[in-house]
Amino acid sequence: MDQLKLGKYTFNSRFIMGSGKFSLAMIEAVIKEGRSEIVTLALRRANIGGEENILDYIPEHVKLLPNTSGARTAQEAVKIAKLAREINGSDMVKIEVIRDSKYLLPDNQETIRATELLANDGFVVLPYMYPDLNVARDLVSAGAAAVMPLASPIGSNKGLSTRDFIQILVDEIDLPIIVDAGIGKPSEACQAMEMGVDALMCNTAIATAGDISLMARAFCQAIEAGRNAYLSKPGRVLIKGSQASSPLTGFLEA
Amino acid sequence: MRLNGKEFNLDKSIPLREFLMSQAIDSSGMGLVVNGQVITAGDYDQVILSNDDQLELVRFVGGG
């Protein structure tokens, strides 16, 4: 069976959903339509007066993937990851180390450091990174369970801006490649999966859609279609010329 | 003391667990950080808060 393996965990879905920018009521519907089995969360200051708990809206079978958003250094990322594990035992973590607030591009070097520290502490580490083959190799050495290259800046919906460099990672890195950030349409998600990407993360493209639930479903279908296309091994492309689908023998000559 | 970034006056030093109870804070589902250190639930009785300390209470929220 075609499953996604991330460290010691196995999943049937290759669609990882972000939970940001949704009302709590929508989160459950979106996860259901998207059929995701992994959902990312962030950690922020609690409202001391009390408030609803987002975990109450995430189905029990879904694996929580806390991110380290807010971290500007490896040390901060480690602290956030440990806090998340302390709250509910989550030992899977998405490392997000960003010190550029304009483009929200990840700091690859701090990400490598955080990966090593957390992998050595028993975490299943999914590092969010700017696609660079050398950095990806360092992440493999550091103990990452996957590599998560960005497609475009976070929240931009711009699509596969870094497509060619993601393809290099697919071709050269033995860990699962999970495209994360900037995917705007299901067709882009489908294309990424056709390239051989192992899974896809999406948040804003769904949260900013006109019909949020329907878009979650569209992404689910697109990711499945792209994966099936990749497994089917698409046919050859004729750069020049053509090849008829039926024999060129006529039957209408006089 | 600073509580989630705001000034908060503690009349006297108090164990963390007692402080949470005195403020009617339900810490289930929250992570606690005192002076930059993550506090495990088992240590809530051992950690003593004073007016020089910084306490952060965090929880999961939506994020990508």
Task: Describe the protein.
The complex is a heterodimer of chains A (254) and B (64). Chain A has helices at residues 24-34, 74-88, 108-120, 133-142, 163-172, 186-194, 204-207, 212-232, and strands at residues 4-6, 9-11, 15-18, 38-45, 63-66, 92-95, 124-129, 148-149, 178-180, 199-202. By secondary structure, chain A is α/β, with parallel strands linked by helices. In chain A, the strands form 3 sheets. Chain A has a 5-stranded parallel beta sheet. In chain A, strands 6-7-8 form a 3-stranded parallel beta sheet. Chain A has a two-stranded antiparallel ribbon with strand order 1-2. In chain A, helix 1 (24-34) runs parallel beside helix 8, helix 2 crosses helix 3 (108-120) and helix 3 packs parallel to helix 4 (133-142). The longest helix of chain A has 21 residues, at 212-232. Chain A is globular. Chain B is mainly beta and 64 residues long. Chain B contains 1 helix and 7 strands, in the order E-E-E-H-E-E-E-E. Chain B has one helix spanning 16-22; strands at residues 2-3, 6-7, 14-15, 30-34, 37-39, 48-49, 54-62. In chain B, a hairpin with a 2-residue loop joins strand 1 (2-3) and strand 2. Classes of the chains: A alpha/beta (254), B mainly beta (64). The A-B interface holds A 18-22, 24, 27, 40-46, 48, 50-51, 53-55, 64, 66-67, 69, 79, 82-84, 86-88, 154-155, 181, 201, 203-204 and B 3-5, 23, 25-26, 29-31, 33, 36, 38-41, 56-64. Strand 4 of chain A pairs antiparallel with strand 7 of chain B.
How is this fold's topology laid out?
The complex is a heterodimer of chains A (254) and B (64).
Chain A lengths: L3 E3 L2 E3 L3 E4 L5 H11 L3 E8 L17 E4 L7 H15 L3 E4 L12 H13 L3 E6 L3 H10 L5 E2 L13 H10 L5 E3 L5 H9 L4 E4 L1 H4 L4 H21 L22
Parallel strand pairs in A: 3-4, 3-10, 4-5, 6-7, 7-8, 9-10
Antiparallel strand pairs in A: 1-2
Helix pairs in contact in A: 1-8, 2-3, 3-4, 6-8
Chain B lengths: L1 E2 L2 E2 L6 E2 H7 L7 E5 L2 E3 L8 E2 L4 E9 L2
Parallel strand pairs in B: 1-7
Antiparallel strand pairs in B: 1-2, 3-6, 4-5, 4-7
